[in-house]
Amino acid sequence: QVQLVESGGGLVRPGGSLRLSCAASGFTFNSYAMSWVRQAPGKGLEWVSDINSGDGSTYYADSVKGRFTISRDNAKNTVYLQMNSLKPEDTAVYSCAKSIHAWSIHTEDEYDCWGQGTQVTVSS
Predict the structure, then answer these.
(1) Which of 93, 5, 7, 99 is closest to 50 using CA atoms?
(2) Terminus of the chain with fewer CB atoms < 10 Å: N or C?
(3) What is the per-residue pLDDT for 94?
(4) How far apart, in whole angstroms, are the C-alpha atoms of residue 109 and residue 124?
(5) How far apart are alpha carbons 103 and 29 in whole angstroms?
(6) 5, 26 in Cβ contact below 8 A?
(7) How many other C-beta atoms can be found within 10 angstroms of the C-beta atom of residue 106?
């Protein structure tokens, strides 16, 4: 079955870095856009970053632009999120999600599989 499994979260000091991974299985990975989303306590879902199929074009939320980098390894069926210069406001549960298209549309209905999430806590 279609499955997404995240890893790489943890506790990091402000200014530190983490690399999240999302291992996918059960579908043709290179045919679909993949996204990272996050949800902080008491807040709504925020689309952090996408990477489309085909040309690999990317999207970043303004809040992470210049600090986060999304990438995908289609041979390993894995999408990554490199997070640098982390801030306390980046604290959230980060999840990866599979689009139903080769591109991303930021509504939940356009995604058909979500990972369980990994906690990222940025604190001194």
Answers:
(1) 99
(2) N
(3) 98
(4) 37
(5) 13
(6) no
(7) 15
Q: Which two structure tokens, joined as six digits, stand for 88?
A: 């306390």
Q: Identify residue 29 by its one-letter amino acid code.
A: F
**End-to-end CA gap in the chain:** 40
Locate 14 and state its tokens: 């402000």
**In one letter, which amino acid is 121?**
T
pLDDT at 108: 87
pLDDT tens figures, 39-50 = 999 999 999 999
The token pair that represents 8 in the structure block:
């790489």
Neighbours of 57 (CB within 10 A): 12
Report the C-alpha gap between 88 and 98 in whole angstroms.
27
Collapsing DSSP states into helix, strand and coil, what is residue 40?
Answer: coil
